[in-house]
Please model this.
Amino acid sequence: MSKIGARAAAAPQLPQGEPDCLAAATCPPLSHVAYIGLGANLGEAEATVRRAARELSGAAGVQACRLSPLYRTRPVDAGGPDYVNGVVELNTSLSALPLWRTMQAIEQAHGRQRPYRNAPRTLDLDLLWFDGSTIDTRELTVPHPRLAQRAFVLRPLADLAPALRIHGAAVSDLLQHVDQSGLWPI
Model:
């Protein structure tokens, strides 16, 4: 069984009504595996996160394979309404920077603004992990620099890939070291 197929076998089933591309048991091999964090706390946040997952799956060179369960979370280092967060696993023929630019375009299409750090947002897409690569440029840092500190990222990522290694530790192990008290399944 392929590395992707082994991960997919452990994934929870998606709720009824998710698009087929997100409910697939395995990703067809393109060339890269990526995990993207999705979050929103303005407007119809849950609908926006689900729509963004579908838009990612429809982007050129991308297939969204699995969407994690979604969670309601308190804002971290910010005010505003609770967030809706999840993670999507992708297979893509794009390299990391073009994928990140696609993500930015989807955010912009949803009215994303950046008036100040940690401002409430209509949609936030973060490239969490890309093929086990370490990327550190002016535009992009992968793995996401605060991934290991955030339950709202680790919990849905663990739902999809508990054995995935970030900075040498399994996601499931990292999750045991963060406060999960502000996290509720939707």
